[in-house]
Amino acid sequence: MAGQWQVRFDGGHQQRYLADRQAVLRYVLAVGPHAASQRFEVFREAEPVALADGSAGGRRFVLAEVIDLGRAGEAERLREQLAELAEQAKPAAAPVRRAGSPRSGGIPGGRT
After folding, report:
1. What sign does the dihedral 8-14-15-16 (CA atoms) show?
2. Which of 18, 32, 87, 102 could form a disulfide with 69 if both were Cys (CB 3.0 to 4.6 A apart)?
3. In a domain, 94, yes or no
4. Span 41-69, pLDDT tens digits
5. How far apart are the C-alpha atoms of 104 and 9, rounded to whole Å?
6. Parent domain of 50
7. Where are the alpha helices (DSSP H) in 16-111?
């Protein structure tokens, strides 16, 4: 499952696996105010561990960022990123064909 994210918090005593960056931000913003620690370590899935014989040895996560909700403005920054990601995830609207357009031959209904 390439691209998975892991969030560790409460001094490493809690961890969650999430599907994408958007889920990470939603989770941190929802859980942060109730967590014992305001510090969240965010890891991203990387290439699998390679054993000495070349075979895959398992999943590996690398530190992507540290989120500290105790920092001034951090929650607002995360909300802005979440809004940007939500906007990017919206499907592009299909073009609207209007009566009298060149594709319809200039006649409403498309008959020529």
Report:
1. negative
2. 32
3. no
4. 999 999 988 899 989 888 899 999 999 99
5. 59
6. 5-89
7. 21-31, 74-89
